[in-house]
Design goal:
mainly beta, membrane, LRR_dom_sf, repeat, 402 residues, disordered N terminus, glycoprotein, single chain
């Protein structure tokens, strides 16, 4: 069949006989530590359509003759060590094929330590559907030519040192499903023009928790703009969102993962939006904003696993919705009143509870002793009184590990 799958080599270099298999169409050596330099002899395998060299311990330069493998549709060089290799040079080698006819549909260079700026020639790979350039040493901005990748479905530029503005040409990628630009230092303004044709978009991630200060990026869309997509994953953070963003958000009723940490939102959380996403959402993080007002108490979140509403200005009684959540962080708000006596029934699988820095009063309910999955409890800086339930202290003593 002309295919090789995961041969278990014990040598530290590629076997010479491999380069004689000129009819080979698929070669997957991923996860086998062969070490040494990238063998230029691989270019003799001109029939290859699929080449996976993920995590082989390769070092040094990527030979320019790789661009002669014009039938390649899948190429992964992920998690090798090509430190010092310029991504511009790699891209230049891809133009070796006659009339730029390289057929690449999937390219994964993530974690391979390539460095440099994305060249304008990135837009020449018209057949590309999946591009992963995450965890590299890239800097500079995204070239406008990215909009020429009309077949692109996934784009990952995460964990780099990229900056500058995000081009509006991104909005031309009508086949895009997943976009990950996280852990960079973007600036400028994102408008509806950046998303205008992204009808298939399901996941977007633009945030940077590593930097000491938020990005100089503003997501600012018009109030009357109705996005053409329905997201499952929305992870925007450490940047500013304009007033129109909240209208956009209310149109997203199929969300499963929501994180809007540190986006400078000052508003109440609409009950209508919460009720629309409540049946399928698993993770909800709206922490480090200026959300205010009370939260509805009647909602049910059957799939919710993690809630983080900490560091806001929310008030009223604790919003302990009936759910199987295991992580609940409501710290540094203005919640008041007692901790509900039926906490163990409302959230029976809770393992992390942080309601510190609020205005809670009353005693700690004995029902907390029934929560056998509980690992972390933080109640500091409230107006609670009385003693911690003796039954729980006995339980802790029985299960403490030295």
């Amino acid at each position: 069949m002309g295919k090789i799958f995961h041969p278990l080599f014990n040598t530290s270099s590629f076997p010479i006989w491999l380069f004689n298999l000129t009819s080979l169409r698929k070669l997957d050596l991923s996860g086998n530590y062969l070490g040494g330099p990238f063998p230029g002899e691989l270019a003799s395998l001109k029939s290859l359509e699929y080449l996976d060299l993920t995590e082989l311990g390769l070092k040094g330069r990527i030979p320019r003759v790789i661009g002669n493998m014009c039938k390649l549709k899948f190429l992964s060089l992920s998690r090798n060590d090509f430190y010092g290799e310029k991504i511009e040079e790699f891209w230049r080698s891809l133009s070796n094929c006659p009339n730029n006819t390289i057929a690449l549909e999937s390219l994964d260079l993530s974690g391979s330590r390539l460095e440099g700026q994305l060249p304008a020639s990135v837009g020449k790979l018209k057949s590309l559907q999946h591009l992963n350039l995450g965890v590299l040493l890239l800097w500079g901005s995204i070239p406008e030519s990215i909009g020429n990748l009309s077949s692109l479905k996934t784009l990952d530029l995460s964990y780099n040192n990229m900056n500058g503005s995000i081009p509006e040409s991104l909005g031309k990628l009508s086949q895009l499903v997943e976009l990950d630009l996280s852990y960079n230092s973007w600036e400028g303004i994102l408008t509806e023009a950046h998303f205008i044709n992204l009808t298939k978009l399901k996941a977007i991630s633009i945030f940077n928790e590593i930097e000491a200060k938020p990005m100089s990026l503003v997501l600012n869309v018009a109030y009357d703009w109705v996005p053409p997509f329905k997201l499952h994953t929305l992870h925007i953070g450490y940047c500013r969102v304009g007033h129109g963003f909240w209208v956009l958000l209310q149109s997203q009723t199929e969300l499963v993962y929501v994180s809007l940490r540190n986006t400078f939102i000052s508003d109440s959380i609409p009950e209508e939006w919460l009720s629309k996403i409540s049946s399928q959402v698993t993770d909800l993080d709206l922490s480090y904003n200026n959300f205010s007002g009370r939260l509805p108490l009647q909602l049910k979140f059957p799939k919710l696993q993690s809630i983080n509403l900490g560091h806001n200005q929310l008030e009223g009684p604790l919003p302990l919705w009936p759910t199987n959540v295991n992580f609940l962080d409501l710290q540094s708000n203005l919640f008041s009143g007692p901790i509900p006596s039926n906490l163990d029934q409302l959230m029976p699988k809770l393992s992390h509870l942080d309601v510190s820095e609020n205005h809670l009063n009353g005693t700690i309910p004995p029902s907390i002793c029934n929560m056998k999955d509980m690992e972390i409890i933080s109640l500091r800086n409230n107006q609670l009184f009385g003693e911690f339930p003796q039954q729980y202290m006995e339980y802790v003593e029985q299960h403490i590990r030295y």
